[in-house]
Specification:
The complex is a heterodimer of chains A (811) and B (157).
Chain A lengths: L19 H5 L15 E7 L5 E7 L1 H5 L3 E6 H7 L22 E2 L5 E7 L2 H8 L3 E6 L6 H5 L14 E9 L2 H7 L2 E9 L11 E7 L4 E6 L8 H7 L7 E5 L14 H13 L3 E4 L2 H7 L7 E9 L5 E13 L7 H8 L9 E10 L13 H19 L3 H8 L8 E2 L5 E2 L4 H12 L1 H13 L3 E13 L21 E7 L5 E5 L9 H13 L6 E5 L16 H28 L6 E4 L2 E4 L2 E7 H10 L14 E6 L20 E13 L6 E11 L6 H21 L30 E5 L16 H17 L9 E2 L3 H19 L2
Parallel strand pairs in A: 1-12, 8-29, 10-11, 14-15, 20-21, 27-28
Antiparallel strand pairs in A: 1-5, 2-4, 2-6, 3-5, 7-15, 8-13, 9-10, 9-12, 13-14, 16-17, 18-26, 19-20, 19-25, 22-23, 23-24, 26-27
Chain B lengths: L3 E8 L2 E8 L4 H8 L18 E4 L2 E4 L12 E3 L12 H8 L9 H14 L5 H7 L11 H14 L1
Parallel strand pairs in B: 1-5
Antiparallel strand pairs in B: 1-2, 3-4, 3-5
Helix pairs in contact in B: 2-5
The chains are: A alpha+beta (811), B alpha+beta (157).
Chain lengths: 811, 157
């Protein structure tokens, strides 16, 4: 691999992140740090009930409080705004407004908003709003919600089942009929969420004279869809300027969180003052519009006696909460890699999307495919258990082989490249797998419960827009998901890159850009300046999400850099009297290949380009040195009309093997990590240290999902985990020390062969933790098919397994 | 508005006098009244630790204190770590080890590490993990933060 790798100076180096100096000194530039002259503050009143009709709202006491400028309710928003952008099925039947209108549908749903001279007064005023509710029976359990006669979350829908369809890819019937064994299980993935430490916030300013609305915001990446936000705000699309602010964490949850900026915009237009609205933690937990997947599975896996995996039948019910803003896109994600790294020949996928009285789902690191990874790996472990095979061997037996790429899976998605056995071998060596097994045997002899989990799973990257609509029979939906950049070399020869999405979530877009520019222009990355353009002057951009950004921004920056370099080459060739194709960019110079003494500096060429038009070669028509580039998805196709194939929609597919050793205390249900190994293949690595940071951070979140985190709703629809005392985010005491290795199998289709890699940790950890816990409890015969696995559940499962065993032996 | 109090505080060596409402949180006072926006407000209920500052040398959660409670105190925020434009060795180590992703927990984490190294100049990995367990980081999984604090310990004290 390394023998063939082209020589690169900056791509592949763990340079310090260029974002960090400002973050280290408290100058992150977050939206909450922004203060505009005359700025006022908003707060929202949240619904205390899960399901109720709003009979009346009396705002008079609130409005009378000194310092209050405005109080707005649902009745007002139907005049001030249009409904919120909604990509779900039949949006007119589950209309979503920025504040609840007529009826509240979950605990925490915003009912009214107050604008006041400071946040304290705004919150005081919320307490002075008198709302009369007529309570309605809450629908909380998704299975109950599906029954005829269940209370309706949205009356217009006539049912809480908002989507149902069975997809069949390949000959499932035949594969199951021919199988030697079929394993079945029910699995439950409970609802958790991103919970970035910074909540969603916006500062909006409206100029009534020009009609221009400027919104500073940390939560919208799809700049080419901002016309939808303008429509909700009832302003022309060319009068909205969205200014991206860096996010203090997102993990998906800020990719399109438009309620906050729309609320701020509406209130700024109404009051004529700049309005800041920043969610408090309760807002973010209760009503972020970005809870994660909440799925109930029945799964069957068909296999041969030798361990060959044949087919997969998945029946999944997903509890979307009270609205369904992105449709069932999170299952599109699942179908991108539903067979994992295995040559499973056919798949049946039955999906039922249900609405209940809970906060709606959005995005959380993995966007639904992290759940499928867990399901597939849990089922492979079940087959291995049935056949008494080692988890490593059953996986190795079923891997797609390196020579079989690009490989089309039954759903129609394509995997670009891979060497899964190579990753597995590295992980086995790094973990000393045989040594771990020996240690486990010894521990069992001592009466200790040590388990070893091993999983091998996929990390798809760079989504196509098709995953949001191939669910429906309409012939086509949008197919673009571009990313853009502008590269400018200024008259002094310094390079600035402008990005157009809300790109900083805590990953390192500026570092990536600096490394790419350094590679392309032969300059030091520290000399590159990266800025973020606002949408009014912006180019189409999609931002981070689905592990797309590193690939897409690299394509955009490289494309723009090539255009600028072409012009610089022409100018330099004129100066040096050499052919443009003989010139190279090295160490701040443009020089003749093989004759480095014939050279001109970037700065001299730049100065000529801007200031000396009459000295430029005659075919240079414009002065200046700047180019835009819009990089579209490098490889995507449409689904077939009959949806037997979904087309290529998530083709740059990384891979990982995680191995964990965990000891369980069967008296208390507590556990202790003895080992955690992660080997990833993310194609060409841009910044190894940053990638490792993403992996470890993802492992920590995956551990949260696996063992600690759940948004728990009571039977009355009350959210029982409204604080970090109840919603448990792993601390430094819980997260294991992660040992990491990499393999680099470049993608043949992306710039430099990069694959996306931001989500991988969370897409692997729940499966490996469950596998290790199950292995630890193998002496009891405990099966783990639910997350989070709390100590309480572990003890209950041990008791139940023992009771089953006693019943069998007739004690 | 209700009762107001005259207070005197010193932040990063600069003295301030102010008249504040009794309910004004120290975090909001530092951020919104004095402009120390490096004091990050994450959970507002004392769990996440992003708003950590040093009050007379000890870490406190500024979202759980009122500004009036800091009357007469010396406060240090993340803005007080770097001196004359030079990063503190802890900040250098955080940069070198990439112990930062989104940066939101970073100020609190740095100040907790600062306090730890004052008390225990050569902590073990486990001691560091225990010491920072009251500060949540949602991005890094803590490993590089622990490495950074270890590296800083070697070169600072």
């Amino acid at each position: 691999m390394t023998a063939q790798a082209p020589a690169r100076k900056w791509i592949g180096q763990s340079i310090p992140r260029v974002e960090d100096p400002r973050l280290l000194v408290g100058r992150g530039g977050y939206v909450t740090d922004l203060a505009l002259p005359g700025m006022v503050h908003a707060a929202v009143l949240r619904s205390p009930l899960a399901h109720a009709r709003i009979i009346s709202i009396d705002t008079s006491r609130a409005k009378a409080l000194p310092g209050v400028l405005a109080v707005v309710t649902g009745k007002d928003v139907t005049a001030l705004t249009n409904p919120m952008p909604d990509f779900g099925p039949d949006p007119s039947k589950h209309t979503w407004w920025v504040l609840a209108v007529d009826k509240v549908r979950y605990v925490g749903e915003p009912v009214a908003a107050v604008v006041a001279t400071d946040r304290y007064i705004a919150e005081d005023a919320c307490e002075l709003i008198d709302v009369q509710y007529e309570p309605l029976p809450p629908v909380v359990d998704p299975i109950a919600a599906m029954q005829p006669g269940a209370p309706l979350v949205h009356d217009a829908l006539g049912s809480n089942v908002v989507y149902h369809r069975v997809f069949t890819f390949g000959d499932v019937e035949r594969d199951f009929a021919e199988a030697d064994i079929v394993v079945r299980d029910q699995l439950r993935w409970h609802r958790s969420g991103a919970q970035p430490l910074e909540t969603v916030g916006a500062v909006a300013q409206y100029n009534p004279a020009t009609g221009m609305m400027t919104i500073y915001c940390n939560s919208v990446t799809f700049t080419f869809l901002l016309f939808l936000v303008a429509n909700t705000l009832k302003i022309p699309s060319n009068k909205l300027d969205m200014v991206p602010c860096p996010a203090g964490g997102s993990f998906g949850s800020k990719f399109w969180a438009v309620r906050v900026p729309i609320l701020a915009g509406m209130l700024a237009k109404l009051t004529g003052r700049p309005v800041k609205f920043v969610e408090d933690r309760l807002d973010n937990i209760m009503t972020s519009d970005h809870h994660g997947s909440d799925r109930i599975y029945e799964v069957e896996m068909a296999a041969m006696r030798d361990g060959t995996l044949r087919s997969l039948r998945i029946n999944v019910i997903d509890d979307y909460g009270a609205y369904i803003q992105f449709g069932v896109g999170t299952h599109g994600n699942s179908l991108a890699q539903v067979v994992g790294p295995y040559k499973i020949q056919s798949v049946q996928y039955e999906l039922t999307a249900v609405l209940t009285n809970k906060c709606q789902q959005g995005a959380y690191r993995g966007f639904g495919s992290e759940v499928t990874n867990w399901v597939v790996e849990r089922m492979v472990d079940l087959v291995a258990r049935e056949l008494r095979m080692d988890p490593a061997e059953i996986r190795r037996k079923n891997f797609i082989q390196p020579h079989e790429f690009p490989y089309t899976i039954p759903t129609g998605n394509m995997y670009d490249s891979g060497n899964y056995a190579g990753v597995l071998d590295k992980a086995l060596a790094l973990a000393d797998y045989d040594g771990l097994r020996a240690m486990q045997r010894k521990a069992r002899e001592e009466g200790r419960y040590v388990g070893i989990g091993l999983i091998t799973a996929q990390e798809r990257s760079v989504f196509s827009a098709t995953e949001f609509w191939f669910w429906f029979d309409q012939p086509t939906g949008i197919t673009s998901s571009p990313e853009s950049a502008t590269v400018r070399v200024d008259p002094a020869g310094n390079i600035t890159v402008t990005l157009y999405s809300q790109a900083f979530w805590g990953q390192s877009p500026e570092t990536v850009v600096a490394q790419v520019v350094a590679e392309e222009f032969g300059v030091d990355p520290s000399q590159v300046s990266v800025i973020y353009g606002s949408s009014a002057r912006g180019l189409p951009a999609t931002g981070p999400g689905g592990s797309r950004f590193t690939i897409m921004v690299t394509g955009a920056v490289r494309g723009a850099a090539q255009r600028v370099k072409d012009k610089m080459r022409k100018i330099a060739s004129h100066q040096l009297e050499a052919a443009p194709e003989d010139l190279e960019f090295v160490d701040g110079m443009i020089r003749v290949r093989g004759a480095p003494e014939k050279a001109v500096s970037l700065q001299d060429v730049a100065t000529l380009a801007y200031l000396f038009k009459l000295d430029l070669p005659p075919d240079i028509e414009e002065s200046g040195l700047q180019a835009d580039y819009t990089f579209d998805h490098p490889y995507t196709t449409k689904p077939s009309p009959d949806r037997k194939s979904l087309g290529v929609f998530y083709p740059f597919v990384g891979h990982a093997c995680h191995i964990a050793a965990i000891e369980v205390d069967v008296e208390t249900g507590q556990h202790r990590f003895l080992k955690y190994v992660a080997v990833h293949d993310a194609g060409t690595v841009v910044n190894p240290r940053s990638l490792d940071g993403q992996i470890i951070g993802g492992v920590a979140q995956g551990l949260g999902t696996a063992m600690y985190e759940q948004y728990v709703y009571g039977p009355d629809g009350q959210l029982l985990t409204g604080s970090y005392a109840d919603y448990l985010i792993p601390t430094a005491m819980e997260v294991p020390w992660v040992e990491i290795d990499h393999q680099e199998t470049p993608s043949p289709f992306t710039p430099y062969g990069i694959k996306g890699a931001g989500e991988g940790g969370r897409m692997m950890t729940p499966a490996v933790v469950c596998a290790a816990l199950e292995d630890a409890l193998a002496p009891f015969g405990v099966r783990i098919n639910e997350v989070p696995v709390t100590p309480e559940k572990l003890l209950r499962w041990i008791d139940e397994a023992q009771a089953r065993r006693q019943a069998r032996t007739g004690d | 508005m209700a009762d107001r109090h005259h207070i005197t505080v010193t932040v990063n060596g600069t003295p301030y006098e102010a008249t504040v409402e009794s309910r004004l949180l120290l975090a909001d006072f530092l951020r919104d009244h004095l402009g120390y926006v490096g004091v990050h407000v994450g959970c507002e209920h004392g769990v996440c630790g992003a708003c950590t500052v040093l009050l007379d040398g000890q870490t406190v959660r500024s979202c759980l204190l009122f500004a009036v409670q800091a009357d007469g105190c010396q406060i240090m925020t993340v803005e007080g770590l770097a001196q004359d434009g030079n990063l503190h060795p802890l900040q250098e180590a955080f940069r070198e080890k990439q112990a930062i992703q989104c940066g939101f927990c970073t100020p609190g984490m740095l100040l907790r590490a600062y306090e730890l190294l004052q008390q225990n100049p050569h902590p073990t990995r486990d001691e560091i993990r225990e010491a920072i367990a009251g500060n949540l980081c949602r991005c890094t999984g803590y490993q590089f933060i622990v490495e950074a604090i270890q590296a800083a310990a070697e070169r600072w004290l």
